[in-house]
Write a structure and sequence with these properties.
186 residues; mainly alpha
Length: 186
């Protein structure tokens, strides 16, 4: 078997030490892990570094005491839970239910009040749109616009153009009136 070319220790360390640590931590993917293991079998320097890392791990494990839970932990936790006063819990629940009912009532009241302003506002907006369209019809502006549009689109589109103009006027009035109605509802 041919030996891989020798690198200076610094260059080799830069290239393989991180991969060695990733391999030890199990963070290399299958292909990268296989490539590193192939390198490891033929590289004395990486084998020495691996032995040093394994010895360091063993030393650290020996130097630190094993972690254990305090045997009284569960008892202390359950005692604290039991110490919570049931009357406080019941009172907190009652307050939350009262607050919830008040918010539901306020929401219902605001909804009805909003509808009381919005529905008449919409009806009034429609009536104003029809009145404005009628006035524009009498002044000849609408007739001229509809005639020009019908000439462009064809003679069968006169009714659609009138409805479209009424809709545009109604939408414009609605956009003007909606913020005012919203302030009144609040």
């Amino acid at each position: 078997m041919q030996q891989p070319p020798r690198h200076s220790p610094t260059q080799h360390s830069l290239e393989w030490n991180d991969r060695l640590q990733d391999w030890l931590d199990g963070e290399l993917t299958g292909a990268d892990s296989a490539r590193f293991e192939a390198h490891l079998t033929g590289c004395d320097e990486c084998q020495r570094t691996l032995a040093d890392f394994e010895q360091l791990d063993e030393s650290l494990l020996e130097a630190t005491p094993p972690l254990t839970l305090n045997t009284a932990f569960d008892q202390q936790l359950f005692a604290r839970i039991e110490a919570i006063d049931d009357s406080k819990r019941i009172e907190a629940r009652r307050k939350l239910e009262v607050e919830w009912q008040e918010q539901l009532h306020a929401l219902s009241r605001n909804w009805r009040r909003t509808l009381a302003f919005v529905i008449p506002g919409v009806v009034a907006g429609i009536a104003i749109a029809f009145a404005l369209t009628g006035w524009l019809d009498n002044s000849g502006v609408t007739s001229q616009l509809v005639a020009e549009g019908a000439a462009e689109l064809g003679g069968n589109s006169v009714d659609f153009l009138r409805i479209g103009m009424t809709t545009v006027i109604g939408a414009a009035l609605g956009m003007l009136v909606a913020p005012w109605l919203a302030r009144l509802a609040d």
